[in-house]
Design a protein that fits this description.
- The protein is an alpha/beta fold.
- The chain has one domain: NAD(P)-binding Rossmann-like Domain (Rossmann fold), CATH 3.40.50.
- 42% of the residues lie in helices and 16% in strands.
- It has a 7-stranded parallel sheet with strand order 3-2-1-4-5-6-7, with helices on both faces.
- Strand 2, helix 2 and strand 3 form a beta-alpha-beta unit.
- Helix 5 packs parallel to helix 6.
- The chain starts with 6 loop residues before the first strand and ends in a 9-residue tail after the last strand.
- It binds nicotinamide-adenine-dinucleotide.
- The site of nicotinamide-adenine-dinucleotide has 27 residues, from helix 1 and strand 5.
Length: 256
């Protein structure tokens, strides 16, 4: 029970296919009290029905693109549950057109939107969480990223740019927050069929290529990504910060 006595906030639950759900199940089974946030655009009834499988949990609405909404959400979480030991950022969004067309056609607005929701929101969440004093000493912040931050992957487009900003933000945040013994890390997950992934052109062929070329010849599951998240939430990873860990069955280490 590596998370016994810890409270973790999972931001970005949508449905049972969400990687956030794999992370929540792992955190709960490893002893954590789990709290959720969901986008104000999601169906609250469906989310409540899903998370009822995790005793004592509750989900709070949060628009990652609005600082006031983030503040209100985190204040509500703190009022009901007190300080937390971990926050997972499992949130991303880009305009569909920007994932369908060539990257070079991305509009100024579409570029800003993807970076705002998928990268800046992590900075805002951490800053506001600190401002309202909701992080216990030794707290661990984790965000999900993807290989498209490092390499140009057709169809990932502006989301790759946003993930590169997210990964760089993780390093800068780790430096700032290290003074308070708060760690910040990223998990670069292999491709998983989720609702968000459906927006990416030819996603099925990405899954096929990973299965063929990854050293472990499989695609990853939400639970495997969740277990790595639990490790990063736990004291077993107390000396790891500012790091991006690939949970991708080794796909990213292969050359040709
Ligand atoms: N599925 C993959 O292949 C894959 C691979 C690597 C990383 N990731 C990352 O994992 C994370 C979770 O994605 P997922 O694949 O589980 O899909 P998902 O659709 O289940 O989760 C994405 C979440 O982002 C939330 N969101 C979008 N806009 C928001 C906003 N304005 N405010 C608050 N929440 C908002 C959605 O409501 C949803 O809960 C994302 O950061 C994604 O980029 C996914």
């Amino acid at each position: 029970m590596i998370l016994e006595g810890k409270k973790v906030l999972i931001m970005g639950i949508r449905n049972k296919w969400s990687i956030a759900w794999g992370a929540a199940q792992s955190a709960y089974e490893n002893g954590a009290q789990v709290i959720f946030t969901h986008s104000e655009f999601e169906n609250e009834e469906k989310i409540n029905s899903l998370i009822s499988q995790i005793p004592g949990s509750k989900s709070f609405p949060c628009d990652a693109g609005n600082d006031e909404s983030i503040r209100k959400c985190l204040e509500n979480v703190k009022a009901e549950y007190g300080k937390v030991d971990g926050i997972l950022h499992s949130i991303a969004h880009a305009n569909t057109d920007d994932l369908r067309n060539d990257f070079i056609l991305t509009s100024r607005e579409g570029y800003a939107h993807a970076c705002d929701i998928s990268a800046y929101s992590l900075v805002a969440v951490a800053r506001i969480a600190k401002e309202i004093d909701m992080l216990n000493e030794g707290a661990s912040i984790v965000a999900f990223t993807y290989y498209g931050a490092e390499k140009a992957i057709e169809g990932y487009n502006v989301m790759g740019v946003a993930k590169a900003a997210l990964e760089s933000s993780i390093r800068y945040m780790a430096v700032n927050l290290g003074k308070d013994k708060i760690r910040v890390n990223g998990i670069s997950a292999g491709p998983i069929k989720t609702l968000s992934a459906k927006g990416i052109k030819d996603f099925n062929s990405i899954l096929d290529i990973v299965e063929e070329r990854a050293p472990l010849h499989e695609n990853v599951t939400t639970r495997q990504v969740g277990d790595a998240t639990s490790f990063l939430f736990s004291d077993l990873s107390s000396a790891i910060t500012g790091e991006i860990i690939h949970v991708d069955n080794g796909f990213s280490i292969v050359g040709v």
